[in-house]
Design brief:
Largest sheet: 9 strands, mixed
Number of strands: 11
Shape: globular
CATH architecture of the largest domain: 3-Layer(aba) Sandwich
Order of helices and strands: HEHEHEHEEHEHEHEEEHEHH
Distance between the termini: 67 Å
Number of domains: 2
Strand content: 15-25%
Number of helices: 10
CATH superfamily of the largest domain: Periplasmic binding protein-like II
CATH topology of the largest domain: D-Maltodextrin-Binding Protein, domain 2
Length: 272
């Protein structure tokens, strides 16, 4: 009799717990450090409105975000560039069909130490600096100081856009200081008066100085009208068409009066 009562108590407890776990959700987001501030800000707001949903967000670069989508280890893969042909092929081989969602716009802004008087650089000058052909700031109107180029690792979507739009697919010199995130690049430049780097618009702060490109300042306006030379859309990818918490989160992010306002607050350019 006691055993029956014990079983009844356990079943009643499980019945009380079951509705909670049935409605609780978990969303995993990985990838681009450029998109990371957007995901974090929107994720925080979404969880406040949906306290039954837990969102786990991490960086690691666009390449890692796409790999996680292909492997099925994330619900959303953040990317600051579009999916590559080789990633599409690998995804299809694994029965994964990545679906892109454009979530914001961005521009990649060259930065220098605040003490550096250089305020504008051409695409050719930037390319020369990162190839190692321009080695002193005096060659571009700055002080007589050796240039230290700070770049991103090859898994970064920011690097790939920089490689395509600035380097024109030519290699960054081996002596460049490689950093794993936008934040790390900004920090490295802020601490080194010799340095030049590049970061997403949302990572600009008072510790670094933004440099215009070909006389055009990187901003929301010049990004949207296409006049800033190093602009790009930002993406979130899903593994197949999203459902459940994933599609609800994306709808929240893409809503003009909800997520897109938070995109602007994050320092990026909203779609609308």
């Amino acid at each position: 009799m006691k055993r029956i009562k014990l079983v009844a108590i356990v079943l009643a407890a499980l019945m009380c717990i079951a509705p909670i776990s049935a409605f609780a959700g978990k969303l995993v987001i990985k990838g681009s450090t450029t998109v990371l501030p957007i995901a974090q800000k929107v994720g925080e707001a979404y969880m406040k409105q949906n306290p039954d949903v837990e969102i786990s967000i991490s960086g690691g670069g666009s390449g890692n975000g796409m790999k996680a989508i292909i492997d099925g280890t994330t619900d959303i893969g953040n990317a600051s560039r579009f999916i590559k042909d080789k990633e599409v092929k690998l995804a299809v081989e694994k029965d994964a069909y990545p679906v892109p969602f454009r979530v914001a716009y961005d521009c990649i802004v060259p930065i220098v130490h605040p003490s550096n008087p250089v305020s504008d650089l051409s695409l050719d000058q930037l390319k020369g600096m990162y190839k190692g052909e321009i080695t002193n700031w005096k060659e571009v109107g700055g002080p007589d100081l050796k240039i230290v180029a700070v770049s991103r690792d090859t898994s970064s979507g920011t690097f790939e856009v920089w490689e395509g739009k600035v380097m024109k697919k030519e290699r960054v010199m081996p002596g460049a200081l490689i950093q794993a995130s936008n934040g790390a690049v900004a920090q490295a430049v802020a601490k080194n008066k010799y340095a030049v780097g590049y970061i997403g618009l949302g990572y600009l702060n008072n510790d670094v100085k933004a440099v215009s490109v070909n006389g055009i300042v990187g901003s929301a306006e010049t990004t949207l009208n296409g006049t800033f030379a190093v602009s790009r859309p930002l993406f979130m990818f899903t593994r197949g068409w999203p459902e459940g918490d994933t599609v609800n989160f994306l709808n929240f992010l893409l809503h003009p009066e909800k997520g897109q306002k938070l995109v602007k607050e994050s320092g990026y350019v909203p779609l609308y």
